[in-house]
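User: I'm preparing a small set of examples for a lab meeting where we compare how different chains pack in three dimensions. I only have the primary sequence for this one, and I'd like the structure in token form so I can line it up with the others. Please keep the answer compact; I'll paste it straight into my notes.
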Amino acid sequence: MNSTIAQLKTRFEQALVSAFGTGYAGTDPMLVPASNPKFGDYQSNVALSLAKPLGQPPRAIAEQLVQHLDISDFCEPATIAGPGFINLAWKSDYLEAELRKMQTDTRLGVDMVKASKRVIVDFSSPNIAKEMHVGHLRSTIIGDSIARILEFQGHDVLRLNHVGDWGTQFGMLITYLREVAPQVLTTADAVDLGDLVAFYKKAKQRFDEDELFKEASRQEVVKLQSGDEESRRAWELLCEQSRREFQIIYDRLDIHLNERGESFYNPLLPGVVEDLERAGLLVEDNGAKCVFLEGFTNKDGNPLPLIIQKSDGGYNYATTDLAAIRYRINQDEAERLVYVTDAGQANHFAQVFQVARRAGWLPDTVEVIHVPFGLVKGEDGKKLKTRSGETVRLRDLLDEAIARAHFDLEVRLKEEHRQETTEFIDHVAQTVGVGAVKYADLSQNRTSDYVFSYDKMLALQGNTAPYMLYAYVRIQGISRKGGIDFNNLTVETAPIAELSSPPSAKPDSSNAIEHTLIELPPAGTAASQFGLNWQPLLTTVLANWKSIALTGLGIYGSIIFIQALLGLFHGINSVPLAQPLFELVGIWATVQFAMKRLLFARDRAELFAEFQAFWHGTVDQLAETADLNSNRPVVALLPKSASLPDIAPLHHTLEPVTLEALPISLQEETELALAKHLLQLNHILSTVETDLLPNRLCQYLFELSQKFNQFYDRCPVLQADEPLRTSRLVLCDLTARTLKLGLSLLGIPVLERM
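Assistant: Understood. Below is the structure token output for the 754-residue chain.
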């Protein structure tokens, strides 16, 4: 769809040149989605913008443009509304063709980027010796979703976890632990992380109140930075314990990160100072080395300094971030740097980016972006806290969401009189609970604060994860009710040799898009060995003609056996009526093949499974499946334990033949609305790739679920006549696949049942 919109812009530019001359080449046609579906799908406002330069009424300009506008291959004739708005509507046959392309595409029509970039996404970044809390929720979830979308678009993404594993707090904590719990500094897991947090709070209190303790803490930092073996060992134990605790949370959230903490850049900090001095940017101010910033002033209007090195020789966060930028550009070869942190750090990053540019470390070829996000608030409108006023631990928040989802599910099962296993209930509760937390965050514009509410995020109605998951589950219910295998709606031929292959060599059916259909060869191979001339074709029939198909297959197999046996033991002349009988059956089979082979491919994969059973089945099994009386002469002549390959092996193969996508017919308004929305996926993901706002994808999925429910409520699917039934099944399948893909890009797995 993106390419069509680009083509539409090109057609407008050509019409502008044809109507008003080359001076208007390159004029923006000002194409925007129509504000109201009754006006079409897109609208051009260019006529209004040209009124003054052309000195004509906008409507007259629009009329001239429309006369030169050639869009008949994908749009209905353009119409003019109001003072000069040009309205455009896609043709139904164009939409159907685009859906057929989408149907056979594993990426659902989403283009890979033409030029892949090396992108670094810096997110999550908890502090060592502290538990992850609700403040880490947004960075972790938003960063992961951005990384997933960029990866899907084809970019080379490096996910970095810039953990706080260096600085004064470690000197403070090690000094305190040496006094009250020295075993923690020499023995792994001597206390759990919760106890470490309590120790940290007490150490901070001592640091603020006790000057001797403060000085001892600073000396400990110096020892740590100089590589003192004892201090380094204590630091490593604290980091490793925190790291394991973080990983528990990341596993529950399905987050994948590469840790590269502040300590990684510590050896590079002196070089940052030296190079800034060499560039003439450093100024000493009260003993500290600073860079005075442009555009940042204090209350007196004087430029603000960014401290690079403190008067005591220590370094600031800014120094570490500058070292990180240099390393990521020079060593990691990043072309785009994305920092996902709270909005409170916006000024810090703006200042760091400015210094990096002025120093020449941040070239114009590298894009650097701060992705800010707002606060998570409680239902009282204040920053989310526990009842005791403490920051909510992320572990507790997830546990509560899962517990509530578990309770809701058990209530619903009781109301519906359903019995499910404990494993099923636990899995659904885990998926719904965690998915609800993620979606509630991602569905908000990240720049805004949002209110955290378990009741709202777990609701089955509204813009919530359960609503999306239920829409997907509803489509899987259609599959179960109708015995539909959506994976086999589209199939592809395979070599006939695969028919008699052992199980390990059977065609791979794991691909959700490309499957196999056997293109059956002319029959009579075995019979020809005995001088017989009859050459029937094995019939291909629709699945709703199963009884006829199985009967035909049974007769065909029986004929092969009869031909071989009669030729071998009795000779054809001993059964005068056999040859005319064979010819009549051959004619019948050929007519059936011609009629059904030209119809829909919907159930061909089902036929493939039936043929596999026929090919490898014994006579008894075939007779029972086809509802044949084994006392009939045709069946009675066959060895009951024989299978078709035993008597008539097929040695030749056919070249694979790719089948076209299934037919799609859009007749009802709700079908058209759903189809148009499905085709917007490519555009939505391209937009998110640029502006890094995952809530756009959430809104798209929410509207998709709404449009599907409206379509399904008003358009019969399983009860519809062919070819409409297949067409609507394709729409259902495309909706499910789009929901599954979209939710996966948000880090949310789907459920087959709820």
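A couple of notes for your slides: The CA atoms of residues 318 and 327 lie 14 Å apart. Confidence is low (pLDDT under 50) at residues 490-545, 597-608, 625-659.

User: Perfect, thanks.
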